[in-house]
Amino acid sequence: MSDPTAEPTGPDVAPAASAAGVPTPDDPSAEPVDGSELSVEALLDDVERLTAERDGYLDRWQRTQADFENSRRRLQREAADAAANATGRLAEDLLPVLDACDAAIGHGEAGVEPIFAALLQVLEKNGLERIDPVGDVFDPTRHEAVLHEPAGPDDDPALSTVTEVLRIGYAWKGRVVRAAMVKVRG
């Protein structure tokens, strides 16, 4: 049932409205009904504004992505550093044990030697380096001079040479954790 007060709709209404001089939405020459006139310049301004807005959003998104990637890499690096530092601290904590084993071997305790060698091998495989510098030139970054003897007639007075190691030093992955206590000549 159709409502007699309803406006007619359908394909045959548009030609009739156009013939009566009433603008239709399909008519390109039709004036806007609400009285607003959109000029080409206004539309281009809108396009420029929206393009600038889009570019701003894109730039912020790209910066956020870069910040996220930088944070991810930093966290991975910090986690790796924390693990390396933890193993380094463990190695430092084991230095008194190594010293005790070294002293026991020096006093003739032969049973300690295989355990000491195995422990030292594991630690060296993971980054521990012994600093045993007898005969080397004194290096204050790796050696701690606790005794000094004057240079002999055959020694170079400009160079101090390590003549005796009083306590072995250790480095962990290139970083000195304990300098070797040494006696120097020169």
Layout of helices and strands, plus pairs?
Elements: H1 13-19, H2 40-106, H3 113-125, E1 128-131, E2 143-149, E3 161-167, E4 169-172, E5 175-178, E6 180-185
Parallel strand pairs: 2-6
Antiparallel strand pairs: 1-4, 3-6, 4-5
Q: What is the C-alpha radius of gyration, as a whole number of Å?
A: 43 Å
- Unreliable segments (pLDDT under 50, ≥5 consecutive)? none
CATH superfamily of the domain at 128-186: Head domain of nucleotide exchange factor GrpE
Structural class: alpha+beta
Count of β-strands: 6
Strand arrangement, major sheet: 1-4-5
Main pleated-sheet profile: 3 strands, antiparallel
What is the end-to-end distance?
120 Å
The pLDDT mean sits at 83
Question: Summed up, what is this model?
Answer:
This protein is α+β, with helices and mostly antiparallel strands. The chain has three helices and six strands, in the order H-H-H-E-E-E-E-E-E.
Task: Considering the chains and any ligands shown, give keywords for the structure.
single chain, 186 residues, alpha+beta, three-stranded antiparallel beta sheet, 6 strands, 47% helix
Any overview of this molecule?
The chain is an alpha+beta fold and 186 residues long. The chain has a domain at 128-186: Roll (Nucleotide Exchange Factor Grpe, Chain A, domain 2), CATH 2.30.22. Helices cover 47% and strands 17% of the residues. The protein contains three helices and six strands, in the order H-H-H-E-E-E-E-E-E. The chain has helices at 13-19, 40-106, 113-125; strands at residues 128-131, 143-149, 161-167, 169-172, 175-178, 180-185. The strands form two sheets. The chain has a three-stranded antiparallel beta sheet. The chain has a three-stranded mixed beta sheet with strand order 2-6-3, with no helix packed on it. A hairpin with a 2-residue loop joins strand 4 (169-172) and strand 5 (175-178). Helix 2 (40-106) packs antiparallel against helix 3 (113-125). The longest helix is centred in the middle third of the chain and has 67 residues, at 40-106. The chain is elongated and about 105 Å long. The termini are far apart. The mean pLDDT is 83.
